[in-house]
C-alpha cells in the first residue's frame, strides 16, 4: 500500500465556518506534511510532523491548525479562512529517516472559501 | 540560496520525441533531487530521483542527468507520449536532517500526436 488518502476531495466553506481536512497513510511513515498549492504554482510547505511531533511550521497563519493524532493520521483544522486561502491542499508522507526522503503525496483536497 | 530554477515554463513535443526539462540550483547543501509529475486536479507523483554521487539514473523512458560541478540536473523523457502531458516539478532537499523540499516553478509538458 503506497497510498496517502485525503478526505474530502472537494470542500466549499464560508469564511465563518470550521472544517477539517483529513489525511491517512498506512506505509509506516513517520513524517507527514501539509502543503498548499495554488494554480500553476509548485507546492508550498506548511507543516511537517516528525514522529507525531510538529517539527516545522512555515509561518502559517493560526487559522490553519494541524494535528497528528497518531502516526497514520494527520488533520488540518480550518477556521475563519479567507477567499485567498482557496487552493489545493496536499498531504504527503515519508519514512522520516534522514537518508530517505521519498515523499508520497495524496490526491489533495480542493478547498474553495466563499 | 534556496532556489531551484526550472526551465522551460512550457514545452510542446511531438509524439515519439524527446522532452528535456532543466533545473539549476545554487545551494551546495542540497543532497537529493526528485522529479514529480502532476496531472490536473491530482497530487504530485514521484517520478524518479537522484543523489549527487550519481551522474545519471534511468527508469524506463525517464532519465535524470546530474552535473554536480555545474549544479544542474535535467529530466529526459524518451519516446514522449500524449499520456506524458502533465506538469513536471524538479525539487531539491535542503541537506541531511531536513524534511524540506524546494520545488522549481514547474514545466507544463504537452505531447501532441
Secondary structure blueprint with pairings:
The complex is a heterodimer of chains A (114) and B (113).
Chain A: E1 4-7, E2 10-13, E3 18-25, E4 31-37, E5 44-50, E6 53-57, E7 64-70, E8 73-79, E9 87-94, E10 104-105, E11 109-113
Parallel strand pairs in A: 2-11
Antiparallel strand pairs in A: 1-3, 3-8, 4-5, 4-9, 5-6, 7-8, 9-10, 9-11
Chain B: E1 4-7, E2 10-14, E3 19-25, E4 33-38, E5 45-50, E6 56-59, E7 62-67, E8 72-77, E9 86-93, E10 101-103, E11 107-112
Parallel strand pairs in B: 2-11
Antiparallel strand pairs in B: 1-3, 3-8, 4-5, 4-9, 6-7, 7-8, 9-10, 9-11
Which word captures the global form of chain B? globular
Q: Classify the helix fraction of chain A into a percent range.
A: under 10%
Helicity range of chain B: under 10%
Number of helices of chain B: 0
Multimeric status of the protein = heterodimer
Compute the separation of the termini of chain A in Å: 36 Å
Largest sheet of chain B: 6 strands, mixed
Calculate the mean pLDDT score of chain A and round it.
92
Rg calc of chain B: 13 Å
SS strand fraction of chain A? over 45%
Shape of chain A: globular
Q: How is the biggest beta sheet of chain A arranged?
A: 7 strands, mixed
> What is the chain-wise order of helices and strands of chain A?
EEEEEEEEEEE
Taking pLDDT < 50 over at least 5 consecutive residues as the criterion, the unreliable ranges of chain A are none
Structural class of chain A: mainly beta
Distance between the termini of chain B: 40 Å
Amino acid at each position: 500500500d503506497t497510498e496517502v488518502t485525503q478526505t474530502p476531495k472537494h470542500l466549499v466553506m464560508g469564511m465563518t465556518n470550521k472544517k477539517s481536512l483529513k489525511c491517512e497513510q498506512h506505509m509506516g511513515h513517520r513524517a507527514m506534511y501539509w502543503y498548499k498549492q495554488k494554480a500553476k504554482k509548485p507546492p508550498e510547505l506548511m507543516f511537517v510532523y516528525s514522529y507525531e511531533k510538529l517539527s516545522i511550521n512555515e509561518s502559517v497563519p493560526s487559522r490553519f491548525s494541524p494535528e497528528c493524532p497518531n502516526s497514520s493520521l494527520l488533520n488540518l483544522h480550518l477556521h475563519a479562512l479567507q477567499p485567498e486561502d482557496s487552493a489545493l491542499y496536499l498531504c504527503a508522507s515519508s519514512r522520516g529517516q534522514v537518508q530517505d526522503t521519498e515523499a508520497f503525496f495524496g490526491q489533495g483536497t480542493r478547498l474553495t472559501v466563499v | 540560496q534556496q532556489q531551484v530554477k526550472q526551465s522551460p515554463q512550457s514545452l510542446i513535443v511531438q509524439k515519439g520525441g524527446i522532452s528535456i526539462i532543466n533545473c539549476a540550483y545554487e545551494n551546495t547543501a542540497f543532497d537529493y533531487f526528485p522529479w514529480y509529475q502532476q496531472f490536473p486536479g491530482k497530487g504530485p507523483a514521484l517520478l524518479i530521483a537522484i543523489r549527487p554521487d550519481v551522474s545519471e539514473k534511468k527508469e524506463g523512458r525517464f532519465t535524470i542527468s546530474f552535473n554536480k560541478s555545474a549544479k544542474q540536473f535535467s529530466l529526459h523523457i524518451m519516446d514522449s507520449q500524449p499520456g506524458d502531458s502533465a506538469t513536471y516539478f524538479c525539487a531539491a532537499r535542503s541537506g541531511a536532517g531536513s524534511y524540506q523540499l524546494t520545488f522549481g516553478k514547474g514545466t507544463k509538458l504537452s505531447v501532441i500526436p
